[in-house]
Write a structure and sequence with these properties.
CATH topology: Porin
Order of helices and strands: HEEEEEEEE
Number of domains: 1
Largest sheet: 8 strands, antiparallel, barrel
Number of strands: 8
CATH architecture: Beta Barrel
Structural class: mainly beta
Shape: elongated
């Protein structure tokens, strides 16, 4: 029951945040993906994630963008749980055109409802590095991305061994 109340409260915040970021200058891209990790606690930690990237160009620096990325994940293994996160990224595309590779690095906060031996807290920090490709078409864009994510409570409480995840993402953006 406690997990359901936490999930509803955090989901409401997530929906409010997404709704409040409707600015016309923001480009919005939607991602869905699959993530996995092996930990001391669980040999199989698996989750399905939904993310929204709100992107703005960094003025004066060609091909560099700032992103805000809220996300929510359903944890299917080892048991039904969830993750809620809010991350901030620097996004760099290597060149312009209909196809371009990119790299992004960022950090943010994450709430894990799963209990881990490695992490003594449910609220943690997540640092991510992603590599991907963007395919531009006339009215939309398609993304593919692989991401490494490290979760830690930054030493605020022990234990703090960290959790390393790999995430595979597919994204869709509309070109207006």
């Amino acid at each position: 029951m406690k997990k359901k109340k936490s999930f509803l409260m955090i989901s409401s915040f997530f929906i409010f945040f997404v709704y409040s970021c409707r600015g016309e200058e923001l480009k919005k891209d939607f991602f869905a993906g699959y993530g996995f990790a092996k930990t001391e606690s669980y040999k199989s930690y698996r989750f399905q994630t939904i993310l929204i990237d709100f992107t703005r160009p960094v003025e004066g620096i060609k091909n560099l963008f700032f992103q805000i990325e809220p996300g929510i994940s359903y944890v299917s293994s080892p048991s039904d749980n969830f993750e809620i996160n809010l991350s901030f990224f620097a996004f760099y595309r290597f060149f312009q055109g209909n196809f371009h590779p990119y790299i992004k690095i960022g950090t943010g906060i994450i709430y894990l409802s799963t209990d881990f031996i490695e992490q003594s807290t449910h609220f943690n920090f997540a640092t991510s590095l992603g590599l991907g490709f963007k395919f531009n078409f006339e009215k939309f864009s398609i993304y593919t991305e692989g991401r490494f994510r490290h979760i830690s409570n930054a030493g605020m409480k022990l234990p703090n061994q960290g959790i390393n995840s790999r995430i595979l993402l597919i994204g869709l953006g509309y070109n207006f």
